[in-house]
Amino acid sequence: MFKEFKIFISRGNVLDLAVGVLIGGAFNNLVTSLTKNLLSPLIGLFVNSINLSSIKFSAGAATFTVGAFLDDVIRFLIMAFVIFLIVKGFNHLRDRNATAESEEEPETIPAEQAYLKEIRDLLAAQSTHSDQQS
């Protein structure tokens, strides 16, 4: 079982995933700080509240924290936009590499196919020439 785990963990995809999770967690903390410490107070200036997450309203016994929800929406939009930019960048690089590879490799035809094409062209020329004589 240890051997199987060692093989599993040593695959490149698992290591890439682990690095992605760690970087994603750190990025999440950064976006949370950006939203909480910069964007929320800035938006709060326009709604007469210093802290956006403190905006609430109550209906009966229920309390609705609208500001906390808005913080989460802002955080989600920032994360989604950054992921969009990353995916778009990778797709652009992949497409550019695919185009470069297709330009580098000229289409090679096996010798047998080249001979068959020559024979076909010669036969077509002969039939055209004999049709013109008739």
UniProtKB/TrEMBL annotation:
Keyword annotations: Cell membrane, Ion channel, Ion transport, Membrane, Transmembrane, Transmembrane helix, Transport
GO molecular function: mechanosensitive monoatomic ion channel activity
Compartment annotation: Cell membrane
Membrane spanning residue stretches: 12-31, 73-90
Keyword Ion transport: yes
PROSITE patterns with a match to the protein in the record: MSCL
Topology within the bilayer: Multi-pass membrane protein
Main subcellular location: membrane
Cross-referenced InterPro entries: Mechanosensitive_channel_CS, MS_channel, MSC/AndL, MscL_channel
Gene Ontology CC terms, in alphabetical order: plasma membrane
Subunit structure: Homopentamer.
UniProt cross-references to PANTHER family, sorted A to Z: LARGE-CONDUCTANCE MECHANOSENSITIVE CHANNEL (PTHR30266:SF2), MECHANOSENSITIVE CHANNEL MSCL (PTHR30266)
Protein family: Belongs to the MscL family.
Function: Channel that opens in response to stretch forces in the membrane lipid bilayer. May participate in the regulation of osmotic pressure changes within the cell.
Listed NCBIfam families: mscL (TIGR00220)
Protein name (database record): Large-conductance mechanosensitive channel
Protein species of origin: Lapidilactobacillus concavus DSM 17758
